[in-house]
Amino acid sequence: MGRTHLHEGTWGMDTLNFLNHPLTGTPFGSALDLCVMLAMSAWLLSVITRDYSWVDRLWPICPALYCLLVASDNDFGSARMNLMTALVFVWGARLTFNFARKGGFQKGGEDYRWVVVQQKLDPVAFQLLNVSFFALGQMLLVWLFTSPVHQAWLWRQAPLNWVDAVATVLFLVLLAGETIADEQMWRFQQDKKQRIAYGQDIETPFITTGLFCYCRHPNYFCEIAMWWVFYLFAVAASGQWLHWTGLGCVLLTLQFIPSARLTESISASKYPTYRNYQASTPAIFPLPRIGTRSR
Questions:
Q1: C-alpha span between 212 and 9 (Å, rounded)
Q2: Are the CB atoms for 216 and 292 separated by under 8 Å?
Q3: FRET pair for 240, CA 20 to 30 Å: which of 27, 43, 206, 291?
Q4: What is the pLDDT of residues 203-224, one digit of tens each?
Q5: Cα distance between residue 73 and residue 9, in whole Å
Q6: CA–CA gap between residue 266 and residue 205 (Å, rounded)
Q7: Phi and psi at residue 18, to the nearest 5°
């Protein structure tokens, strides 16, 4: 797939171009400057409020903002960038809704895992981790896995093709899978709370049914796969299968592994039978033992 790409843009938001980096002067470069500002804001808010979930609240919003910045630079004249932006907006809406109904945007809605990490580290080490990983590292990761839209911007004259069609279908299928997994988890947790309130016995205190019988974290699997699929839009635009904008989905995959381990260490400490579930059901990727059920 041969292409002629464009480097010059019409980006005029010079106020965001306050950092000197290789993408300065491009809309996605301005998104990087915005990313740094938001990261510092999240860090300051975490120090002031002692709530370390500010990045979690920005996570579902920022990718859509970054795509919107890039698509608007071309006056929304690129079908591919418009499509990418629309898909990310739907992704963000789903994540925002799920996070909100769990109380994530409310006071005291901090992710329980940050509390566990804080208990394991001394205050200085935790604050160093807070500024480097929780705030800046996480926000840069969000910017990075959105970066295929920059490749689409560089090759914005390239028409839509079959790779875009495949990527769109796969993205929507994975989005549906993640939505189903979240709904199954939500209903399980609500039913569990109701049973506890009525003093009823809880035979299995963690979900093992639905999509959770194929892997312990089907929502993680769908999330990882979605951003790998998002990278296909960059491939469709440029015809290049390997490009730096694919680094985001690689790092996102690597991040979910320790995140899953932390979550599972907490579950295993609370529920002794959780180890049986671990032994019988794959963690994130369902393909090696698809259909396996816990005993």
A1: 46
A2: no
A3: 27
A4: 889 999 999 999 999 999 999 9
A5: 7
A6: 13
A7: -100, -10
Helices H / strands E in the chain, number of each: 12, 0
In the block, tokens 């990490």 appear at: 117
What's the pLDDT at 222? 97
- Considering Cα of 103, then 105, then 108, then 110, what sign does the dihedral take? positive
Give one DSSP letter per residue of 163-232, joined into a string: HHHHHHHHHHHHHHHHHHHHHHHHHHHHHHHHHHHTT---S-SS--SGGGGT-S-HHHHHHHHHHHHHHH
Per-residue tokens: 173: 């299928």
Neighbours of 102 (CB within 10 A): 15
Structure tokens at 53: 């979930």
